[in-house]
Amino acid sequence: MKDWQQQAIEKITATDDFHIAPFHPDKKTTGTLTWIWSVVVEGRIFVRAWNGTNGRWYQAAIAQHSGIITAAGKRYQVEFNPVHSAKLNNDIDSAYENKYRNSAYLKPMISDGPKSSTVEVILRANIPNAD
Prior knowledge:
This protein is of the alpha+beta class. 31% of the residues lie in helices and 29% in strands.
């Protein structure tokens, strides 16, 4: 049986409803969830900031290294790790090209600015929905 993280990643792959909110410095509260494109490469989740390294959520993610995402109808506590590998970034470009091939926003998203802000999102805990 697949572990919960792999099952979650498979569901996230199939959707386009990824929202991200890094923690504030108190490590308890977050800002407003921001809708963002996500892709999966080699069973791992990656995102990029439209505004590159100047993006507010990107700067917070790098500073705090953790936050919350919502995707595929679930909430997760996550860790953020910057991507520096040129080969991995090229594979991520290909994933963006495949998933978002019909979008007018694709070309800018695989340009140098956003590419420099590529972050791996690592699932740490499933957060139960408050019903």
